[in-house]
Amino acid sequence: MSRVASRDEQGESRVAWWRRMSRRMDKASEQFAVQVQDIVLLRRDLDDSFYDDLLEVLLAADVGMATAEPVITTLRRRVLEERIPDAEAALMALKEEMVAVLEARDRVLRLDARPSVVLVVGVNGNGKTTTIGKLAHRLRTEGGSVLVAAADTYRAAAIEQLRVWAERAKAPVVAHQHGADPGAVVYDAIQAGVARGIEVILVDTAGRLHTKAPLMEELKKIQRVVQRLVPDGPHETLLVLEAPTGMNALTQARAFHDALGVTGLVLTKLDGTARGGTLLAIEAELGIPVKLVGMGEGIDDLNVFDPRAYLDALFAGVLQVHS
Ligand SMILES: Nc1nc2c(ncn2[C@@H]2O[C@H](COP(=O)(O)OP(=O)(O)OP(=O)(O)O)[C@@H](O)[C@H]2O)c(=O)[nH]1
Ligand SMILES: [Mg+2]
Question: Do 141 and 90 fall within a single domain?
Fold first, then answer.
């Protein structure tokens, strides 16, 4: 089980999932289409100002300089070499360039170790617990065994919320009382997981602490507990970010990465936000791949990140206007 399921219970392929979800990206797609329409497609000549405007459009869609600039440089070269005739064809070539950049990054979840320990971290309300519920469901559907650890012991309702998700995913939970030491929960969870031959242990953590201990110290302590029992763990430290926060998420993301060494990003709430391009910028700025995306509150609304399907959805409005 080296990757998350490509098919769910109903036999829906990943491609079909993305096709279904692309409708939920219509806000991002619409906004992108409107900007492209206004600034780029009204112009016919592929001159310097075309590329300047294109850069502006990408930045306005939150794609970020680190991705936008090299992609446009490559596009300029291709337009000359391949004699790309007009703005529409150039836009399609641009999309292909972006697909190529994104597909070059390794996004596979590292879940080969037995057990694999996955820490899920992020500020409060970003979707950690929900992501764990959905991920547990995906892994279970794929035939894997999963255990979830309730290491957010600070918020009174957190343990119960995780239990509800785990029940839906048919995964056992290890939890202590509200207010207990999160390190002790993780210790017990790993011991239980090893004893039961569990393949993947998902650890839910707090987003904000109400005690003296700063959050990062608490999370580092959890990592040390994991390492004591599973020396090569945690195998993934996934940082959950929500798309609507846009580039403001960068500062928090850097703090988590500096403290914990994040191995993958989960971008949630891509449904209903106009900030669809943020995903590219955050990934490029941090140099950490987006591994999973969430597009809704349902148990099936999480999947591995598929660059081509994502860019198809983002460019869908542009294609509609001009096909
Ligand atoms: N629309 C949408 N809502 C989401 C998504 N993921 C999570 N949510 C919602 O966001 C809210 C917060 O999610 P949680 O999973 O509780 O977030 P958390 O990071 O665990 O929060 P704390 O435990 O308080 O730190 C819930 O109402 C979720 O239903 C998503 O992909 N799309
Ligand atoms: Mg939570």
Answer: no
Q: In this structure, which ligand is nearest to the CA of 208?
A: 1
158 and 296 in a single domain? The answer is yes
Q: What is the DSSP string of 212-272?
A: SS-HHHHHHHHHHHHHHHSTT--SEEEEEEEGGGGGGHHHHHHHHHHHH---EEEEE--TT
Ligand nearest to the Cα of 244, by number: 1
**Cα–Cα distance, 55 to 178 (Å, whole number):** 50
pTM listed for this prediction? 0.91
Q: Which atom of ligand 1 is nearest to the CA of 272?
A: 1
Q: Distance from the CA of 284 to the center of ligand 2, in angstroms? A: 27
Query: pLDDT tens across 131-161, in order?
Result: 999 999 999 999 999 999 999 998 889 999 9
Residue 283 lies in a domain: yes
- Quick one: 50 and 87 in the same domain? yes
In terms of Cα–Cα distance, which of 307, 247, 314, 320 is closest to 99?
307
